[in-house]
From TrEMBL:
InterPro entries associated with the record: CheY-like_superfamily, Sig_transdc_resp-reg_C-effctor, Sig_transdc_resp-reg_receiver, Tscrpt_reg_LuxR_C, WalR-like, WH-like_DNA-bd_sf
Sites bearing 4-aspartylphosphate, chain numbering: D69
Gene3D superfamilies the record matches: 3.40.50.2300, Winged helix-like DNA-binding domain superfamily/Winged helix DNA-binding domain
UniProt keyword annotation of Aminoacyl-tRNA synthetase present: no
Pfam families noted in UniProt: GerE (PF00196)
Annotated source species: Rhodococcus olei
Signal peptide as annotated in the record: none
Chain residue ranges for the region called Disordered: 1-20
Domain Response regulatory: from-to ranges: 20-133
Keywords for the protein's UniProt record, in alphabetical order: DNA-binding, Phosphoprotein
Protein name, UniProt field: Response regulator transcription factor
Length: 232
């Protein structure tokens, strides 16, 4: 098909227009901060913001990228939020304090363009948003760590079944209950737990007690970081 002058003009307009950014964030100060950061960047503009993904999608705004916080007041899952955005044809860049490796891992494995810390310098944030708005992957330490595991921790190579057993047992379930939930025989669960402990010991990360196993599961992102008690 021959490209017409009109086609070329529409393409040029698309490439030259500012990229329209949506923000899913329930702290207004963060949105204001992003607006201030991008105020001097002619190619980027915050076009909409909302406290939840459904609210942003319901705004009807045409967007090129969504900046997504992980821990939202509605308690939504990062995986679900990313999937909703992708179903709507939108890519996401995670903008987070990154204090919870479990949430970061959920978002990273759901297929975001990158994971960016809120503590990064302004120039780094702008460059990352600019790249993501153009559909480019934003490779950061947080993003890589979420995919591959914390590089500071030696991977113990648990199988998917062993991870299931670890997550259930370390979260407080008794071995008999883990057996019931997984469909495994009780002696198989105990054998798995022994192997899990052995693997952590071999990696230099001993897990002799149930509390130790809980700590290892949190470190590796198999269980969420416990929420802080704001009243304590």
């Amino acid at each position: 098909m021959t490209e017409t002058h009109s086609d070329r003009g529409e393409l040029a307009d698309s490439e030259s227009r500012p990229r329209r950014i949506g923000v899913v964030e329930d702290h207004e100060s963060v949105v204001i901060g992003l607006e201030a950061m991008l105020s001097g960047h002619p190619n980027l503009t915050i076009a909409a913001s909302a406290p939840t993904v459904p609210d942003l999608l319901g705004s009807g705004q045409q967007l090129d990228l969504v900046i997504l916080d992980l821990r939202l007041a509605d308690g939504s899952s990062p995986k679900s939020n990313v999937e909703q955005l992708r179903d709507a044809g939108l890519e996401a860049l995670v903008f987070t304090s990154a204090e919870d490796p479990y949430l970061v891992r959920l978002a990273a494995k759901a297929g975001v363009l990158g994971v960016l810390r809120k503590s990064e310098p302004t120039a780094t944030v702008i460059a990352a948003i600019d790249a993501a708005a153009n559909g480019e992957q934003v490779v950061t330490t947080e993003w890589a760590a979420a995919i591959d595991g914390d590089p500071g921790l030696h991977d113990v190579g648990l199988s998917p079944r062993q991870r299931d057993v670890l997550a259930l047992y370390a979260s407080g379930e008794k071995a008999a209950r883990v057996a019931s939930l997984t469909g495994l025989a009780p002696h198989t669960v105990n054998d798995y737990l022994a192997r899990i402990r052995a693997k952590y010991a071999e990696a230099g990360r001993p897990a002799r007690t149930k509390t130790d196993l809980y700590k290892r599961a949190v470190e590796d992102g198999w269980l969420p970081v416990p929420k802080r008690d704001n009243h304590g």
